[in-house]
Task: structure prediction
Amino acid sequence: MGFFTDAYDLFSVSIVARLLGRIYYTEPGTLPPAVSASVTGVALVGTLCGQLFFGWLGDKMGWKKMYGMTLLIMVLGFGISGDYPLSATIMAEYANKKTRDAFVAAVFAMQGFGMLFSSINCFNNV
Result:
């Protein structure tokens, strides 16, 4: 779930920035470069901070407890990115030896599905 939501969040930001340009800047129809960079930058900085914070907290308090907390704190970028380092770790830690590689591969495959669904959702709302 973490890789899906993280990819969905990160890959929909550029499409959302284009939509914001169409809504609020009707003259040229695109966001000014500084505003577009700010929108994208805030999402990336929030992701980085969330991954570092929840990864560190997961080491201190336990992976399972923090994974549940990140599911409750799905604030744009921050809580979603907390799922990113925890999902693969939990899957690798608790899967049995025979199916561990398939389960970890499935976790990483969710990133592709997140990218696909963000594109589909954003283009349906254009």
Remarks:
- The mean pLDDT is 79.
